[in-house]
Amino acid sequence: MQANITEGSSLSEAMKKHPDVFPSQFPSLVAVGEKTGDYEATLTRLAELEEKSSELKAKVQVAMVYPFIMGSLSIFVTIFLLTVVIPQIQELFLQFDAKLPLITRIVIGVSDFLIGFWWLILTLGFGGIVGFIYYKNTPKGKRNWDEFVLKIPILGSLARKVLVSSFARNIGILLSNRVPLITTLVIVEKIVDHSIFGEEIKNAVEKIKEGEKLSSSFGGSVILPQMVLGMIAAGEVSDRVPEMMNKLADIYDSEVDTAIKTMTQSMEPLMIVVMGLLIGTIMASIMVPMYNLTQQLQNI
User: Fold this and answer.
1) Global pTM?
2) CA–CA separation, 28 and 187 (whole Å)
């Protein structure tokens, strides 16, 4: 950047040459600051925007930590039981020629398959992950994934709230700095990075070019609820759209917090039940034949 500026580029032009470092709203806002001469206010708003965006991302990431830990723990314990404990118990059953119930035979079969074909499982697992990532990075795959996430109970609601918060926050900041509405929407479409919402924003841009207002251009949106469109319309009537957008962002930041707490509280008992059923089934497959074997030995 220093070399770009030394060669005569403005700060905003230098930022545009480094899109991997500066999101698209940065050079646009700085360009406005260059025209008005008010760098301080522009950079202060940029700092606030980046802080809010980072806080939002951190909240979502923290919400994913608990399910990840519980899921990983369940997988680890299950693999340990199937590859270490079950083979040892199986030898005992073979020594006494014990009659095994169906559930025990199934668990032993899974254990034998896991031990004998671990390389195949790892290969298929790794291949599946790589294939999923590749597909998700294609336009069709990204759209299907974004659409699928929106349909997941609780998680879909959280995803919508995060999108609305980011949308409102960025539009509020950009419009406050006198960035034109069309330019603002083009920038925000790139920021939200969501196939479904991105298409809605592009369609809204075309409608606004034809003379529609911002609120009506998003009619029928699957992301923006009527309450949001109503507040935007109220902002248009009072000529206070930027302020209304910032208020919406604050409201949805609070709703994101609530949604994260709800999701965590809902997933905690669900994860415990799934983990309990999985491990409980394996333990039951051991204890039932062990009890039967003990009874047989006592009767000898």
Assistant:
1) 0.79
2) 9
